[in-house]
Amino acid sequence: SQTIHQWPATLVQPVGSPLSLECTVEGTSNPNLYWYRQAAGRGLQLLFYSVGIGQISSEVPQNLSASRPQDRQFILSSKKLLLSDSGFYLCAWSVSLSGGYNEQFFGPGTRLTVL
Amino acid sequence: KQEVTQIPAALSVPEGENLVLNCSFTDSAIYNLQWFRQDPGKGLTSLLLIQSSQREQTSGRLNASLDKSSGRSTLYIAASQPGDSATYLCAVRGRAGNMLTFGGGTRLMVKP
Question: Which residues of chain A have pLDDT under 70?
Answer without folding.
Answer: 61, 99-101
